[in-house]
Write a structure and sequence with these properties.
Number of helices of chain A: 13
Main location (chain A): membrane
Shape of chain B: globular
Number of strands of chain A: 0
Oligomer: heterodimer
Strand content of chain A: under 5%
CATH class of the largest domain in chain B: Alpha Beta
Largest sheet of chain A: none
Membrane topology (chain A): Multi-pass membrane protein
CATH architecture of the domain at 92-260 in chain A: Orthogonal Bundle
CATH architecture of the largest domain in chain B: 3-Layer(aba) Sandwich
Domain ABC transmembrane type-1 (chain A): 96-299
CATH superfamily of the largest domain in chain B: P-loop containing nucleotide triphosphate hydrolases
CATH class of the domain at 92-260 in chain A: Mainly Alpha
Number of strands of chain B: 12
Strand content of chain B: 15-25%
CATH topology of the domain at 92-260 in chain A: MetI-like fold
Shape of chain A: globular
Distance between the termini of chain B: 40 Å
Order of helices and strands of chain A: HHHHHHHHHHHHH
CATH superfamily of the domain at 92-260 in chain A: MetI-like
Protein name (chain A): ABC transporter permease
Transmembrane segments (chain A): 12-30, 96-120, 132-156, 176-194, 234-256, 276-302
Strand order of the largest sheet of chain B: 6-7-8-3-9-10-12-11
């Protein structure tokens, strides 16, 4: 298994290089000069322009810029410096904690409620519970996140102030509950539907019939013999989705005014702050790769037929 | 002698898209301790459904037991509350399924699947159940059982898997074992081993064995009595010896003619013509009529009752006596 993990990590190297290069090229291919962008309408003196362009390697060919950036990142662990002189790592530092807390909250919400609803519906196929879950999840998938977000904020944050409506003043978990639910609502729907279908299918399997023939209790038949096999596709989704939650919180962070990475990336794209965007996304890619590796290893625990060699 | 298991007039129906499909239409048999009863029939004859109804593991709905009775040691099982029924299942009546690869849970080690029987029914501790599991695996001749406890079903050969399946069914030394096509998924040589194992364990434990199969060859070596099922009903009931020697139902005659025999030069094998009837639209009268070379007008009008042609030998055919007397054999040119 360790050899497998190592090989997967090695395979991650070209993935990492490919994705970061693509992001780098995209960000720096944006039209307009980033130094000029900082000054807005005012003219920038040639000497200043020249000095800054030198300092941030902007006169080098793009690939060389990328090379220098990666060298700094991999050898010195340095995410570089924004054009206003701030260290990118310092700009993102505290924001990672906010984004991670939000993602974890959303993820736990997806996991617990999604699987619970899925089991509930899967055991009552064709009945009212099943119809409710299917209808409700379809609605959540169909409605855009900003509609869900503002609606939840107005109803549960303002009209009936059960949760804080915005900001992080109440700390984790309280401030993160409502945004977490909004962010996780999409994934929740998928988890519930996957669990439902997968469980309903597995309950028809031969080995579940065997489990019943053994005279086991219904709960034992469902949980031990039905659910465990049903969770394999769900784990896949939850794994991939954790990465998506980390990176996909821009809208939610905006609605609930959470100072996370998403908000920073959004601002930086508008201000053409390439180093910040590249730095944030590069770290997201790393998170994605690691989470996927963990998911693949967890597979082996759920399904012994998968072999790592 | 009082029968151990007594199934009488068992009826099972399914509701499929609003239509009623009658899968079992009045199956009756008895089984004594230490005896082997073979239930013969082709796919769709209702033999597996009937077995699952006896076990109480049919999905209800869509299935519905519409009549009849299943008695174990004189106790009626149908209509027993699920909690009590569950105690019977696996403990007093156990079942072996056709394909052990799919019938065993692929993601749980076999040792745990065996131990589960003792833990669920006997409240055994982890260690005790584990020791019992090793004993079981040794009993069905799995080599180095203790070290293979943690292995998963896919790590065993097909024959070994079926042995483990049998071990699991026999864990609590049941009174009745129902084996539903236990050798169909196996090689011929392994089939013989499994049948010998079943016969040995039947004798050791003194249990009654219900062997469900479509394979006449499997039946011959082990069964005491046979029931031939067709379209959910009993076509013929006889001792295994009588059934082979002098079948009294045209369907049984057809089945026997379609099996190659070493002691006779049969020339071309005669298949039973046609296909089994759709249980949702059974023909009037005798269900075998459309495929029967012997059919006459009366067969479409009246459903034939089971009539005795000899002591312990019954067939549901208007012409049972004639068939029994050997008319069919002359017809089929043997």
């Amino acid at each position: 298994m360790w050899r497998y993990a190592l090989r997967r990590l090695l395979q991650a190297v070209p993935v990492f290089i490919g994705t970061t290069l693509l992001i780098y090229l995209l960000v720096f291919a944006l039209p307009g000069d980033p130094i000029q962008a900082m000054a807005g309408d005012k003219p920038v003196p040639d000497t200043v322009l020249h000095t800054l362009r030198e300092r941030y390697n902007l006169n080098d060919p793009l690939l060389e810029q990328y090379g220098k950036y990666m060298w700094g990142l991999l050898v010195h662990g340095d995410l570089g410096e924004n054009y206003d002189g701030q260290k990118v790592s310092a700009m993102l530092g505290g924001r990672w904690a906010v984004t991670a807390k939000l993602a974890v909250t959303a993820w736990v919400f997806e996991l617990l409620l999604g699987i619970t609803l899925g089991v509930w519906a899967g055991l009552r196929r064709g009945k009212l519970a099943d119809t409710l879950v299917l209808g409700g999840t379809t609605l959540l998938i169909a409605v855009p996140v900003f509609v869900v977000g503002y609606t939840a904020q107005i109803l549960l944050g303002v009209r009936w102030p059960i949760f804080p409506s915005a900001g992080i003043d109440d700390g984790w978990p309280y401030s993160y509950l409502l945004p977490g639910m909004v962010l996780g609502s999409f994934g929740l729907s998928y988890v519930a539907r996957l669990t439902r279908t997968s469980l309903a299918e597995n309950l028809r399997a031969d080995y579940v019939r065997t489990a019943r023939a053994k005279g086991l209790s219904r709960s034992r038949v469902v949980v031990r013999h039905g659910l465990r096999n049903s969770l394999i596709p769900v784990v896949t989704y939850l794994g991939v989705d954790f990465g998506a939650l980390m990176g996909g919180a821009i809208v939610t962070e905006g609605i609930f005014n959470l100072p996370g990475v998403g908000q920073q990336v959004f601002q930086s794209i508008q201000l053409k702050e390439g180093p910040v965007v590249v730095g944030a996304v590069t770290l997201l890619v790393l998170v994605f790769i690691l989470v996927n590796l963990v998911v693949d290893l967890v597979y082996g625990l759920l399904d012994p037929r998968i072999r790592y060699d | 002698m009082k029968p151990l298991l007594e199934v009488s007039d068992l009826r099972v129906a399914f509701t499929v898209r609003g239509r009623e499909v009658r899968a079992v239409n009045g199956l009756s048999y008895t089984l004594a301790a230490g005896e082997t009863l073979a239930v013969l029939g082709e796919s769709g004859s209702g033999k597996s459904v009937a077995a699952q109804a006896v076990m109480g593991i049919l999905d209800t709905p869509p299935a519905r037991i519409t009549g009849g009775s299943v008695k174990l040691d004189g106790t009626e099982l149908l209509g027993l509350p699920e909690k009590e029924r569950r105690r019977v299942r696996g403990d007093r009546i156990a079942m072996v399924f056709q394909d052990a690869l799919t019938a065993l849970n692929p993601v749980i080690p076999v040792g745990a699947q065996l131990a589960e029987m003792y833990r669920a029914h006997r409240g055994a501790g982890r260690k005790e159940a584990r020791a019992k599991a090793v004993e079981l695996m040794e009993r069905v001749a799995i080599p180095s059982a203790a070290t293979r406890l943690g292995d998963y079903p896919h790590q065993f050969s097909g024959g070994q898997r079926q042995r483990i399946m049998i071990a699991m069914a026999l864990a609590l030394e049941p009174d009745v074992l129902i084996a539903d096509e236990p050798t169909t998924a196996l090689d011929v040589t392994v089939q013989a081993q499994i049948m010998r194992l079943l016969a040995r364990l039947r004798d050791e434990l003194g249990m009654g064995l219900v062997l469900i199969t479509h394979d006449l060859g499997v039946v011959a070596g082990i069964a005491d009595r046979t029931v031939v099922m067709y379209a959910g009903t009993v076509a013929e009931r006889a001792s295994a010896r009588d059934l082979y020697a002098r079948p009294a139902h045209p369907y049984t005659v057809g089945l026997l003619a379609s099996v190659p025999r070493l002691d006779q030069d049969a020339g071309r094998l005669e298949p039973v013509r046609g296909t089994p009837p759709d249980p949702a639209a059974l023909p009037s009268g005798c269900p075998f009529r459309p495929r029967c070379p012997r059919a006459e007008a009366v067969c479409a009008e009246k459903e034939p009752p089971l009539v005795a042609v000899a002591p312990g030998h019954e067939a549901a055919c208007h012409f049972a006596a004639e068939v029994y007397a050997g008319e069919m054999e002359a017809d089929s040119g043997r």
